[in-house]
Amino acid sequence: MSSGPSILRTIARLAPLLLVLLLLTGGCEEDVVAVLGTDRPFTLFGVLTPQSDTQWVRVFPIEDVLEPGRPGPLDARFRAIDLTDGLATTWRDSLIQEANGQYAHVFFAPFAAAFGHTYRLEVTRSDDARTEVVVTVPPASELVLPDVSISTPPLFPIRLVGDVPNLIRIEVVYTFLVRTTREILRDKATFSYQGQQRRTVEGWLIELNTARDTQRILSLLRETTQLDPRNLIKIIEIRIRFIAASAEWNPPGGVFDPEVLVQPGTMSNVQHGFGFVGAGYRLEARWSPLDTLLIDGN
């Protein structure tokens, strides 16, 4: 079995994308009670991504006895079948110990999930009880930002070209300069644009309202900082980041609330089991204006 610290370091590097897999790491006793008494053998959590050369899925056995994870081997055989090209791979079990002392089984296989491919993951017990999930990796796509200009436009269209079914965790990070009564400060502000994307013929459009966001930044700064009366602020960089995700990766109300998502069946695509296995990859781009001088933010 692989060493726990090594696997934990790998998961930590992938944490921004593996949100769903990490949601149940600290699951409470009430969450486990909710699935006791079922004939379903396993709960699965994970994400397939082309951006990693190793894929990981956490497997929870569903047992009649409520007790912490044990350090022994898990009665489970894990296989993935690429339904696009027919290739099958057998995954290995790795045992990790969490900070709370409990043990967890994370199955892995050394391959990069292929863009646009569909995979069936099968976890089978020795009595042939099986849990499975089918998930499709979004196709490759291209992020297109506006041409560089002298200053930041008040409306900033961002286009994603490609047949990606879903966008999640859309965030915009502004890096800016602002003049106070004493100095010029450099700082950052992050805003969520989740739910503000819209479909287009070529893919997706996310239109940033940079004029509104600039005023929001100034309003937030006024609560803690004595600004120059002229409200001089300059956006020096716009950073957009999100996950191009599989269609099923859609939490209730579009909100990734761990207290909601840990409830069995809330967001699940697993057959004869519980949990969720998604697919996706991170996209990120930066844009900076040619002008670096302060401008009037009014």
Instruction: List unreliable stretches of 5+ residues.
Output: 1-34, 293-298
What is the CATH class name of the largest domain?
Answer: Mainly Beta
Cα Rg: 23 Å
Total count of helical runs of at least 4 residues: 5
Q: Which bin fits the share of residues in helices? A: 10-25%
The SSE string, one letter per element, is HHHEEEEEEEEEEEEEHEHEEE
Beta strands, count: 17
* Net shape: elongated
Structural class: mainly beta
Task: Assign the CATH superfamily of the largest domain.
Answer: Immunoglobulins
Averaged pLDDT: 83
Measured between the Cα atoms of the first and last residue, the distance is 61 Å
Q: How large is the share of residues in beta strands?
A: 35-45%
Number of domains: 2
Major beta sheet summary = 13 strands, mixed
CATH architecture annotation of the largest domain: Sandwich
Q: What is the CATH third-level topology name of the largest domain?
A: Immunoglobulin-like
Compact description:
The protein is built from 5 helices and 17 strands. With 298 residues, the chain is mostly beta strands. It folds into 2 domains: 4-139 and 247-280, Immunoglobulin-like; 142-243 and 284-296.
